[in-house]
Amino acid sequence: MKKIIQLLQIIAIIFISNVAIGQEFYGGRTLFGYTLLDAPKVFTSEGQAYLDSVDFNYCCANDKERIYFLTKAILIEPNNAELYSSRGQSYCPAISDELYDNAIKDFTKAIEINPKDPFYYYQRAETYHLQGEKEKAINDLSQAIRIIPNDVKLFIMRARYYSRSGNNIAAIRDMQSAIKLEPNNLWHYHNKAYYKSLVEDYYGALEDYKRALELETDTCSIYNHIEGMATSYYYLGNYKIASDYFSKVISFLSNTKCSKNYLTGELTLISSYYYRGECRLELNDLETSFEDFKSVIKIGKGGYYVQNSYGGIINIGMAYIKLDKQEKACQTFSKAGELGSDKAYEYIKRNCN
After folding, report:
1. Complete domains list, the chain, with CATH
2. pLDDT digits (tens, 9 = 90+) for 242-284
3. What are φ and ψ of residue 311, in 5° steps?
4. Which partner for 339 in 14, 28, 176, 310 could form a disulfide, CB atoms 3.0-4.6 Å apart?
């Protein structure tokens, strides 16, 4: 059960972090975006003159063309770090180990030319992360932080990488550093609460979720923090309080457009029905708990994001189990497996023999 709700929280955390960090970085440059249109502002001498002569709006409709012109510029000006940086970015949109390797070589060359620019470490860290090289990614972000210790985006990104490598204690420390730099940024508290929940510090998570809720001004984001509080109470065994908070989430998402406006809203609605049903089972309120499990199935069948999210589908499968519909449950778990859920087969083994 815990794995399902953590999976849904991961989806939310990725969405939230991407919004918080954004794609923009130092000097208006963008990570894995197309910076070539700004090339004349940052490139110099002959390389700049060459790029000035190229109409990127017209000719560079794909990454191969960008790489071609950047390679020619590098031949003209081989010691320009920005050229390597931009060519590295152009390799990255394609999911290919060979192209990722090429990108890393370019970012490494940019670092060799200008080792004091944190952006190049940031670029290489993200590419290492895409390759699954978590330790190397963390090391590069740590170097960027040593160069610019007051940039909050670096702490947020490193916290995410620490968490994905299983070091949630380090992730919590990084989010605390982010809070020191931006004490009124509610998402820093929300993310720290999430990492605390992963180390089962649910009391600490509650404190941070409450602080995030106090700072929240976006009506459609309120439910994120309330759902986090409900989850914390659930794992603390306070089923009555957890049920009440899940009810608040359900009421909110059922009576606003927020569940349709936000990717995570639909998944959270399904999850909240399921876990409220679990709470009601623990409280021996069988009739209303079964109604919640039926709602999971009803909403899930028509939910686009739920039908394309194995976390949401597993919730539906477990609802079928609670309603003693094993065959339906096993079919649902199989669909979750087809969508890539490693946990789906554990549920099949546990419930479908």
Report:
1. 31-148 (1.25.40.10), 150-215 (1.25.40.10), 216-353 (1.25.40.10)
2. 999 999 999 988 876 665 555 567 778 888 998 999 999 899 9
3. -65, -45
4. 310
